[in-house]
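WARN retry 2 of 3 for item q-0093 after timeout on previous attempt; input resubmitted unchanged.
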Amino acid sequence: MSMAHSKPPLHRPLSPHLQIYRPALTMIMSIVHRITGAALYFGTVILAVWLMTAATSASSFALVHGFLGSWLGQLILVGYSWALLHHMFGGIRHFVWDTGRGFGAHERHLFAVLTLVGSVLSTGLIWVVVYSVR
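OK item q-0093 returned
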């Protein structure tokens, strides 16, 4: 068959995108899992800076510790701890999926709810304990 007689390209449908799909809780939790994974990089840098200043000098540690004790620093720390816990619960969900279980519609929705509720409740519990022992 020569090039002049080749078949025209097939017009295949384009892949659906977010504008076509109705957002579902499982889809949102998947997106948030990726976002929390990226946020953990920045939070870990803050933790590393805090540890390095603790090892270097009292004045630099006091500066970083003072910032982390401010309302903005506390907000960042609460966000970091929530991202860490949310990502952990999402990782547990993925670990269960790796065993071949939990792929039904009901199970997927239940895992999404448990990930969200578990991360919020455990973050709240941790920070209640932190403020009660201060």
